[in-house]
């Protein structure tokens, strides 16, 4: 079962982000890499797939389907590449994904995994960088080279047959940079459509479409072992309602959902053997009444 779609859902705004538009606001053209993952350095990012009503208002907070990191298994690499938080100082992108899902995704009528999967598919399907390059609109390091907003809009219309809305950003020097491109999809998030309500943004006639780069910041490697905390445990009931399945699995009579979360869904044969083992010693570890063994298990969660 997917998250419940709002009765007011009429269509989706699909918003693409040009990273330089964020970086330029405060850091020149330098962005910061997130603490984990490798973001794309020469492409548009996914800002969001926003369920909207017929008047063009974003639908938010339709239910309490909490974000669960395990539900984006298999999508992390692409999300880190195309949906990273690249603001400075460096941070973790997971919080951004959590906010996107719990604020907007819960109104989409899509399960959490499919919501992010569909968003990434639309990003690749549109391939905005290629659309613009066909019309000689390419990122440039020559800051004096600006592009006409009308040119950008015309290029998108020519290639997609639909009208896009362009949003720009500026800094203290009044330099304007391409920031976002808004398109619309039907309520199933499958077919591009003319926006029922086209967002209107104030941009000058010409904007920069600048190349961007990242500051030299030390990235922390992602820890493949993720300990489940109380917040994860609290999410289990909501996860059953939002995704139509119970991720709690029983081994030797013990229901352990969080334990599998410790390993973040990794496909390691040794780990899978450990949990599936019929070895009395291993079973004893999980069923142990011995204070020492219990202490060992308790230490894993702290």
TrEMBL record:
UniProt keyword terms in alphabetical order: Disulfide bond, Signal
Lineage: Eukaryota, Viridiplantae, Streptophyta, Embryophyta, Tracheophyta
Signal peptide (from-to): 1-28
Family: Belongs to the RNase T2 family.
Annotated Gene Ontology cellular component terms: extracellular region
Protein name as catalogued: Uncharacterized protein
Record-linked Pfam families: Ribonuclease_T2
Superkingdom, natural source: Eukaryota
GO biological process: RNA catabolic process
GO function term, MF aspect, one: ribonuclease T2 activity
């Amino acid at each position: 079962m997917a998250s419940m779609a709002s009765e007011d859902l009429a269509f989706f705004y699909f918003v693409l982000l040009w990273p330089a538009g964020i970086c330029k606001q405060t850091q020149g053209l330098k962005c910061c890499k997130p603490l984990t993952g490798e973001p794309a350095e020469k492409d548009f990012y996914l800002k969001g797939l926003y369920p909207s009503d017929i008047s063009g208002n974003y639908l938010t907070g339709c239910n309490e389907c909490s974000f669960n990191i395990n539900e984006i298994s298999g999508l992390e690499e692409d999300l880190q590449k195309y949906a990273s938080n690249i603001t400075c100082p460096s941070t973790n992108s997971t919080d951004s994904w959590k906010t996107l899902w719990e604020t907007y995704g819960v109104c989409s009528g899509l399960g959490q995994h499919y919501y992010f999967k569909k968003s990434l598919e639309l990003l690749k399907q549109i391939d905005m960088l290629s659309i613009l390059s066909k019309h000689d609109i390419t990122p440039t390091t020559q800051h004096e080279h600006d592009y006409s907003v009308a040119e950008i809009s015309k290029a998108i219309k020519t290639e997609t047959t639909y009208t896009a809305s362009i949003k720009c950003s500026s800094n203290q020097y009044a330099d304007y940079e391409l920031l976002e491109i808004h398109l619309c999809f039907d309520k199933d998030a499958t077919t591009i459509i003319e926006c029922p309500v086209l967002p209107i943004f104030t941009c000058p006639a010409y904007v920069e479409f600048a190349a961007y780069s990242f500051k030299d910041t030390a990235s922390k490697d992602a820890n493949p072992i993720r300990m489940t905390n109380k917040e994860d445990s609290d999410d289990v009931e909501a996860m059953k309602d939002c995704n139509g399945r119970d991720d709690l699995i029983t081994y030797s009579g013990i229901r352990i959902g969080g334990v599998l979360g410790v390993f973040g869904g990794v496909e390691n044969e040794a780990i899978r053997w450990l949990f599936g083992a019929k070895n009395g010693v291993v079973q004893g570890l999980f069923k142990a009444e011995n204070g020492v063994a219990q202490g060992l298990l308790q230490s894993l969660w702290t």
